[in-house]
Amino acid sequence: MHPRNPPRSLLLLALAALGGVAHAEEPDKTSTSTSSAVVTPCVATATSGAFFDLRPDTAIVVPEGEKAPKGSPVQDYLARGWDYGHNFTLNLCGAVVEPVEDVVGVDRDLWRNVSAYYEIGRKVYSLGLESGALVPRGRKLVLQYTGGSPCGESEKEKDKRAFGVHEGARYKGYDDDEDSGSRHSSKDKDEDEDDEKEKDKEKEKEKEKEKEKTMRRKSATISFLCDHDPETPTAASFVGTDPEECAYFFEVRSQHACAMAEPHKPGSVGPGSVFAIIFFIAVAVYVLGGVFYQRNVAHARGWRQLPNYSLWAGIWSFLVDIFTILTSSCSRIIPRRRGYHTLSRSPNGRSRNRDDENRLIDQLDEEWDD
Ligand SMILES: *[C@@H]1O[C@H](CO)[C@@H](O)[C@H](O)[C@H]1NC(C)=O
Ligand SMILES: *[C@@H]1O[C@H](CO)[C@@H](O)[C@H](O)[C@H]1NC(C)=O
């Protein structure tokens, strides 16, 4: 087939490729600089690149009358205590769904933040407040709750009792003083005693505060295990605690604890655009490299300096022929257009056109070479 129309579209494509590449690289830069600043709770990326998202394992509160989202747990996780004697209730990355009351040694305001607990009678012992700080450590994925009930509660209660007795003894002493004071019946002394009592109270308060600061509180450390079977529901098991009953360890098996590829973030370059960029770069290299080769090695001029000119021109003319055939068959249905009549004249006109263009390009080349 005789090559006819020059592939002008190729040049446009090359230009579009350069423009497209420049445009696509910009959002890429901004997204990498901003994505590191945002930390999503219950989501972690290991240094190895493994990505974990445990949010689907968090039991959620479903408002009354509404349906639970499909696949979301709506009940707290239970872990049997076995020899520990108490069963545990916990949620992952969130407070327990069933609200708790009478939490030992925890402010009332924080009762709704309790993430793990066990019960003795009606008393609730918290193992920590909610947290979404998922930490990957090598092949392990760990979540920790802190700020639970005070450790060694029974010990502390003994302390309190001892303290109370001591206090009583002191007050007894004051009573004695008071007795002797009343004997002297001095008003000033009474006032002094009031002052002293107040000072004592303040001191006690400070002591309490300091105690609060140094008080150890229960915590829960949860280690996650990957379970590839999607049929197995996420389950928690109690591993153990230290002799002081301060640190509690749990193991949770979940399919979401398996390393995943990081999902495509909005704004960054996805696999589709990466492919498009590579494609455009390849086209650009092909066109520019081809032109360079044809000009300097094959010494081609005019449209022939485009790479594989005859091939592309052949494809182009083939498409033109198909178009001609289609339009001519259409023109038979709609005879007024006379499509083939206008096209039948074209070969001569087009080749003359092409010669003119080639001459023009050669002229430009010569001017450029000078
Ligand atoms: C803990 O749970 C198991 C069943 O899961 C039950 O048999 C056992 O009585 C429970 N223990 C306590 C102390 O509630
Ligand atoms: C407790 O939970 C509430 C929301 O339920 C939250 O706003 C608050 O920051 C939490 N407090 C702590 C100490 O985690």
From TrEMBL:
Transmembrane segments: 274-294, 306-326
Domain MRH: 40-260
Signal peptide (from-to): 1-24
Biased composition (Basic and acidic residues): 167-189, 198-213
Protein name: Mannose-6-phosphate receptor binding domain-containing protein
Places the protein is found: Endomembrane system
Disordered as annotated region, ranges: 167-216
UniProt keyword annotations, A-Z: Disulfide bond, Glycoprotein, Membrane, Receptor, Signal, Transmembrane, Transmembrane helix, Transport
Predominant localisation class: membrane
InterPro entries: Man-6-P_rcpt, Man6P_isomerase_rcpt-bd_dom_sf, MRH_dom
PANTHER family noted in UniProt: MANNOSE 6-PHOSPHATE RECEPTOR-LIKE PROTEIN 1, MANNOSE-6-PHOSPHATE RECEPTOR FAMILY MEMBER
GO terms of biological process kind: vacuolar transport
Keyword DNA repair listed: no
Any one of the GO CC terms: endosome membrane
